[in-house]
Amino acid sequence: MIAALARAISRATGTNVDVETLKVVVIFSGAGLLLSLVAAMIYGHALNAALF
User: Fold this and answer.
1) By C-alpha distance, which of 3, 8, 2 is closest to 26?
2) Per-residue b/e over 22-51, b at no fewer than 16 CB within 10 Å?
């Protein structure tokens, strides 16, 4: 699946996209999203109370 995504990006942009580089970007993006969601769940109630 990652290889197909890399080929699609390569065709769309006209640049050579390496599969391993794409894997690293996807892993770090996923980790950042997970961390953001956890922080929103933990601090969401406290932030809501502070604003109102």
Assistant:
1) 2
2) beeeeeeeeeeeeeeeeeeeeeeeeeeeee
The residue whose two tokens read 């999203």 is: 33
Question: Which pLDDT tens digit goes with each residue over 3-50?
Answer: 888 888 888 988 888 888 889 999 999 999 999 999 888 877 666 666
User: Model-level pTM?
Assistant: 0.64
How far is 7 from 14, CA to CA, in rounded Å? 10
Is 10:16 a contact under the CB 8 Å cutoff? yes
